[in-house]
Amino acid sequence: MIQIKQVFALFLLSTSIILIPCTVQSQDAKALLKKMDDLMMAPKDRIATVEILLENKGGKEKAREAEMKQKGADKRLYRYTKPENQAGIATLSLPGGEMWLYLPAFGKPKKISLLAKSQAFTGTDFSYEDMDPKPYSERFDPKLINSTDKIWQLELTPSYEKSDYSKIVVDLDKTNYFPTKMEYFDNGGQKVKVADYNYIYSGKYWYAKTVTMKDLKKEHSTEITMKEVKFDQGLSDDDFTVESMIPADKRKTDK
User: Fold this and answer.
1) What fold does the segment set 45-250 form as a domain?
2) Could you give the CA distance from residue 214 to residue 183 in angstroms, rounded to a whole number?
3) What is the pLDDT of residue 181?
4) Long-range contacts from 80-86, C-beta under 8 angstroms, 24+ separation
5) Bridge partners of 68?
6) C-beta separation of 111 from 94 below 8 A
7) What pLDDT is stored for residue 96 in this prediction?
8) What percent of the chain stands above pLDDT 90?
9) What is the rounded distance in angstroms from the CA atom of residue 248 to the CA atom of residue 232?
10) With the CA atoms of 66, 126, 151 and 165 taken in that order, what torsion angle do they form, in degrees rounded to the nearest 10?
């Protein structure tokens, strides 16, 4: 007859066999997501011209252009330059998920509330939440759900409240650790958006040359293309203040 101690020992052994793969998988998923973040955030700073192409389900297109500056992982400034009726609009992302919007007609920047982050980023198919520069590993809990000869597939669950998504499924390139695709699921579990990435190598950094976001419900897409990209330009923190969103000739000065 098997003794109680033997039964308990067998139980512990079987439990450890079940738990060890789950623990290793969790650690691997976190390490993979951190590698993706490290690749995306490798430059000290960057500046670029951003071309934005919007296309509706009828095939009609609208083009925009903006200047982009980014420093580190959590400071990013967009300023639209084209078309004329969009010129001067600016968005600023700061540490802690803080975001600001400047519309020339308002005359001063407005802070974007947490609830407003689910809204479209200046009329594109990206939301303000999508454009948050904070590292993914600080915003999501990852789980490894699939592996092929070319990609790892991670399921990212938001670790913060009031996200517009229940999860994001990421295809991660096995050679260089950049994302090739992200699928976004709403809080009802339905896939609502898909982003496709085209990364290229320039100098000593990989970066997303083009990103195409498709809204599956609206049958609308936004393609972002980065041009004239320059890295490690020595940008100052002064380039990322709320005041810097306002054109120099429109800023109020103390007399």
Assistant:
1) outer membrane lipoprotein receptor (LolB), chain A (2.50.20)
2) 10
3) 98
4) 80/122, 86/122
5) 48, 78
6) no
7) 80
8) 65
9) 24
10) 150
Whole-number Å distance between alpha carbons of 35 and 41:
10
Tokens at 12, concatenated:
């512990």
Answer positive or negative: Cα dihedral of 246, 248, 250, 255.
Answer: positive
Q: Please write the tens of the pLDDT for every residue from 50-92.
A: 999 999 988 899 999 999 999 988 899 999 999 998 899 999 9
Tokens of 212: 């195409």
> What pTM value is reported for the model?
0.81
Determine how many CB atoms are found less than 10 A away from the CB of residue 76. 20
As a three-state string, the secondary structure of 222-234 is EEEEEEEEEECCC
Q: 104 in helix, strand or coil?
A: coil
Q: Which helix (H) or strand (E) holds 193?
A: strand 191-202
How far apart (Å, rounded) are the C-alpha atoms in residues 16 and 40?
Answer: 36
**Which residues lie below 8 Å from residue 11, measured CB to CB, with a gap of 6+?**
none
Side chain identity, residue 44: K
CA distance 68 to 155: 29
**Would you say how long the chain is, in residues?**
255
